[in-house]
Description:
Chain B: Keywords: ATP-binding, Cell membrane, Ion transport, Iron, Iron transport, Membrane, Nucleotide-binding, Transport. By secondary structure, chain A is an all-alpha fold.
Amino acid sequence: MIVIRTARRLSLRLHPRALAVGTAGLLLALAAGVLAIGHGDYPMSPADVLRTLTGGGSPAEEFIVTELRLPRLVTALAVGAALGLAGAVFQSLVRNPLGSPDVLGFTQGAATGALVVVAVGGSSAALAGSAALGGIVTGVLIYLVAWRRGVHGYRLVLVGIGMSAILTGVNGYLMTRVPLMSASRAMLWLTGSLDGRGWSDAAPLLAALAVLVPVLLACAPALRMTELGDDAASGLGVNVHRLRMLLLAAAVLLVALAAAAAGPVSFVALTAPHLARRLTRAPGVNLLPAAVIGALIIVLADQVTLRVLPGQLPVGVVTGVIGGGYLAWLLATERRAGRL
Amino acid sequence: MPTSRLGGSGLRLAYDRRIVAEDLTVAVPDRSFTVVIGPNACGKSTLLRALSRLLKPAAGSVLLDGEDIHRRPARAVARTLGLLPQSPTAPDGIGVAELVARGRYPHQGLLRQWSRDDERVVAESMAATGVDDLADRLVDELSGGQRQRVWLAMALAQQTPLLLLDEPTTYLDIAHQVEVLDLCARLHEEQGRTLVAVLHDLNHAARYATHLIAMRDGRVVAAGEPRQIVTADLVKEVFGLPCRVIDDPETGTPLVVPAARARVGTVAP
């Protein structure tokens, strides 16, 4: 631990390992991003990419980078960061390492919203908006059902799993109502994909991140206290109820907007906080490292879909395979260590 | 009448519609080691929850320094009134010093994350509870008695003149129970803190308390110094237990000895 103090009662506490993991993750994500921008029908070297990004490219390069490839990359980074953050918040809120939005039904809710639009036909903006709305409505529903003198971890998990099962059924039904022509569009969305994402897809999520990241970081110390149990946290002066409402709303918003931007990219929200915790070796919630790792996972997964695998596979397939494998491994090792 | 910074009057304590206590009035004398006793479900833990702001009374109010405790900001209360709940959870993989440091939360802020005061108070709290040599260990690795001392150190690091303890000796063996209570008594005497504890063991209560509150069915049956109020009649009334009360040979405080099982005639072999 590093402590910085000034004479004027200012004191900051930094954890070198968390700082190192965050910085390294960020640099890796940016490096992967530069490689990602260079990849495509018009290949560019990393030097060309950097030159173009700093304003020294030809008009053609300029167009390819800022209009075609950069939006996709920015969407990927934003979605990954949002999912990593939301996952870390959810896992800490419900005090359960499996408490991710994939498991709790928010993602399914977003899918329901999207499928409704696909079934009746609508623009991709309408689809994104409806997906965001679906996620938020699901969050409110789960909150109302789980409410009983405050929201407690276990109730939230159980209600969330129930809601997730119901919505999976609803989504299955909606899929049968989707016109055959639109079925592939629906499937592509449901897997989570970054294909053809432009600035307009990323904008709502970026705005949400700009507001919610500072809010979440300000809440982080209080959130750490709730890890001691609600009673102990209250005793330390945390308004547990208000904190939980705020965090729940913020996390649901992030998940819903991430789903609106890229579809329900699976397992990132579940995996990123775990990886962050293992890498930083810090107990409890680690918001920024989780966000950075989430962004890194999606950018890398997107590169795997573009370069390694044949055909245009959606990124959700890769995160699903990696995340699912990681989850199975995690369950096995935690079980052996007697922690689960 | 001793002064009292913490107390409640006309309290109706209820969980949803289940009323636990009606028109309950209590006062915690300043600088006392107050112990609340009573049979299971008598409302003693509920009373502690109300005193510590965890439960909002349905009627009446809990006053801290003359002000309704629910009208004051949570953090300000947490700088005056500390709480060690019955079963707090230590996050996976947290170290002893780190857990104790969390007691400093109500004194910290965004730009005041770890002051010299924080550092000093945490060190002092660990020394006072004898866990300073465990500072670098993981909480998960400790014995039950050590862990309880670490939690006490965290509560001490909060630097509150008043400290509430909900059954601090539960799940500990007899030696660790005495160790924790000795520690509480020492903190009370040396640091002049007001302690309020809920205890199950009547003899422990009688030995360590300077002020005893005996409850049954949500009301206070008797309150006062143990030597004055612990009698066979009181124990019968509160716990329904026939007993004799003798002097504790170690401390001279009341010692409750339950009556032997009544023999209903002897059966011939």
